[in-house]
Amino acid sequence: MSGGAPAVAGIPGRGRTRPLAGLLAALAVSLTGTRVSAIALPWFVLATTGSATRTGLVAFCEMTPYVLVKAFSGPVVDRLGPRVVSWSTDAVSAVAVGLVPLLHSQGLLSFWALLGLVAVVGAVRGPGDLAKEVMIPEAAERSRVPLERATGLSGVTERLASTIGPAAGGALVALLGPMSGLVVNAVAFGLGSVIIAIALPKGMGRATDLPPAPEGEPEPGYWRRFGEGFTFLRGEPLLLAVIVMVGVTNVLDAGFMTVLVPVWAKESGQGPAGIGLVSSAFGIAAVAGSLIAAAVAHRMRRRVVFFAGFLLAGAPRFLVLAFGSPMWVVLAVFAVGGFGSGFLNPILGAISFERVPARLLGRVRALGDSLAWAGIPFGGLIAGAAVTAVGLAPALLVAGTAYFLTTNLTGLRPEWREMDRLRGRGRAADPATDEGAVTAAGLGPAAAPAPGEVTGAGADPGVPPGRAAGTAAPAAPAG
User: Fold this and answer.
1) Is 174 within a domain?
2) What contacts 49, CB < 8 A, 6 or more positions away?
3) Spatial CA neighbour of 395 closest among 56, 36, 41, 46
4) Using CA atoms, how far apart are residues 340 and 203, in angstroms rounded to an integer?
5) DSSP 359
6) Inside any domain, residue 336
7) CA-based angle 279:121:35, to the nearest 5?
8) How far apart are CA 423 and CA 347, in angstroms?
9) CB 303 within 8 A of CB 416
10) Is residue 428 part of a domain?
11) Are 16 and 143 in contact (CB under 8 A)?
12) Per the record, which residues fall in region Disordered (predicted)?
């Protein structure tokens, strides 16, 4: 396309792909570093302590502050602007992660110090991840890209990171030790901060405008703004249904990646390289699924594709490890699951952006994420206790059965018929300003509702395959 294309609907024609490309680049580097760390940190704890329970405790200490802080950060992101929140929290994460290998090299890293540092990382990652998520619809509008394609490309970026990161993490841990993976994670956080702060177009990611307060009344405070997001979410049955279902699968996925997979790798003799192999098999196939979803998701019936994707991406991963299958069978099952999971994120992201006005996006997504992820801190603890009590294979069988029942029975509820109702409308209208929705391409009024379509979320073995109500895929604990 010519660089001199005319501006449309207030969106500059010159360099129009820069907003989305810059945001995706920042996502790519930070997610890749996190996936590297998701291999390195659990292996470091398991190798140095020999305790599945302590491995789960590290995950708990990161994800608990992640969920709690993110739940209350929505009004802050809306007020300060997602761009400022994103680069500043990534900078703090870089410092906190970098302190882990530094202290370890000096013999000063106690287990309790490690727990404190991962808690800091979790606390700042929550609002940082949220800030990047809420910039996706603006980046799509500025780049004149359909919303589902933008969320699909975000999914592709996530899957590429989930392919490259675990493979690099497994190789780094095997060759240089787990601390090398944490160094890579710290550098990635720093680079992501620089991209968001410098590379994005001027004016992108600013604070959302508040509707004018009635004459004589003060501007709404934090808790009133927080309550507006909660009230909106409570009136969206489909988003609530997604949150409940994904909340259960997130607990199971958290335990799977942080405890069950590392224990399987240790007991089977596959080691950290085996974790990297299964993660990469899942991730490569997920990239393929995400690319297809980015191209055709806007033409597909969401509900059918959504539950088919979960059927492939969920329970089979647990069962193939429980049965002690040969490595080639494990890789095949993970690859099929990865392909199915690639269709999930574009659907879930599009549903959220269609239904939530831009003014409320930070608050609603923060609440949706946090409610869906509330059980993640306990996933590793539960999995560690289960392995200690009954062994690896029974724990995998119970978790796989629970995953299958959750992702199939929930689809019988009537709320899921709403998945296709607002398809094609782009970003949601804001009832406070009575403004009509604008298409994701920024080309004018939204089209009439089109029948049928799909969404999805967090995962590879390190990231749950589905995300809730406009939530970002729950990232594997980074450390």
Assistant:
1) yes
2) 55, 111
3) 56
4) 37
5) G
6) yes
7) 15
8) 10
9) yes
10) no
11) yes
12) 424-479
Structure tokens at 183: 């160094």
Q: What is the pLDDT of residues 102-145, one digit of tens each?
A: 998 888 888 899 999 999 998 988 888 888 888 888 888 888 88
Mapped onto helix, strand or coil, the DSSP state of residue 435 is: strand
CB 436 within 8 A of CB 341: no
**Rounded to whole angstroms, how far apart are CA atoms 449 and 4?**
33
> Helix axis angle, 392-409 relative to 261-268, nearest 10°?
140
Q: Which residue has the tokens 């003060």?
A: 218
Q: Is residue 219 part of a domain?
A: no
Structure tokens at 131: 């800030």
Q: How many CB atoms lie within 10 A of CB 404?
A: 17
pTM, rounded to two decimals: 0.62
What average pLDDT score do residues 240-256 get? 88
Cα separation of 33 and 345, whole Å? 20
- Amino acid identity of residue 445, one-letter, is P
- CATH number for the domain spanning 27: value is 1.20.1250.20
- pLDDT tens, residue by residue, 336-374: 998 988 888 777 777 777 777 777 777 777 777 778 877
**361/363 Cα distance (integer angstroms):** 6
Instruction: For residue 357, list its beta bridge partners.
Output: 428
Which residue range(s) make up the domain with 62?
18-208+224-420
Domain count, the chain: 1
Tokens of 57: 């405790």
Token pair of 348 as six digits: 């879930």
Distance CA 80, CA 84 (A): 7
What gap in Å lies between CA 331 and CA 149, rounded to an integer?
29
Q: Look at residue 379 in the predicted model and tell me its pLDDT.
A: 86
Q: Which residues pair with 430 in a beta bridge?
A: 435
